Input
Amino acid sequence: MKTILHCATVALGLLGFVAFAGVANAGPLGVTGASVTIWSYVNAGGAISDPCEQALATNPCAVAGNQVYSGSYTGAIDFTNPGTNDIASFLNTAGGTFVGSIAGLTQMLSSGGFSQSTLINFRFTIGAHDLGTISHDDGVSIYDATNTTKILDSSFPTVLIDSTFDLMPGTYNLWFAEVNGLPADLIMDVAQSEKVPEPATLALLGIGLAGFGFSRRRTLN
Output
């Protein structure tokens, strides 16, 4: 009888672990209340190697005089080529909600010759282990919460490409630079999302494993 109870304990612990550590497929990454900062600037004589054209936290053109927006965003990171070459049109393509109106962002999104550029920073938090790809034209990078550790660097302007990411639960900064004219794309597609077990779930698993060990010991004796 005790052996049966121990086995039940094992089953309960493992069942709790499986329930909370599930793996699911997903589409574009959705964020809630992500902080958003946008800079727009003219960079006469710019070039692909110019620091002002890079999607980096160290971009020297990310200064107060060039900042055109600060607010928050809830929705999918699923921004695609707009029909009109302005910042607001680009941001509206994902269908999310901005707190802090974006209607006045009529500045050109980017122009050829690296003369007019837009730099966007999304600071977001995820609660799962997410793996996938970022489709982007132009550069992107991902930093930790404090913008000190670079996790992904595909920061140079480029044609449309995919960059892979592997992010554990936490807070991150996504930097995107749109330069040198359209098209413009920023799609953060999650291929797999795995919820990390909570402490209570891990405790259940520990109890289950302990019960399993005890029952084995009783059986052997």
Remarks:
- The helical segments are 2-20, 87-92, 199-220.
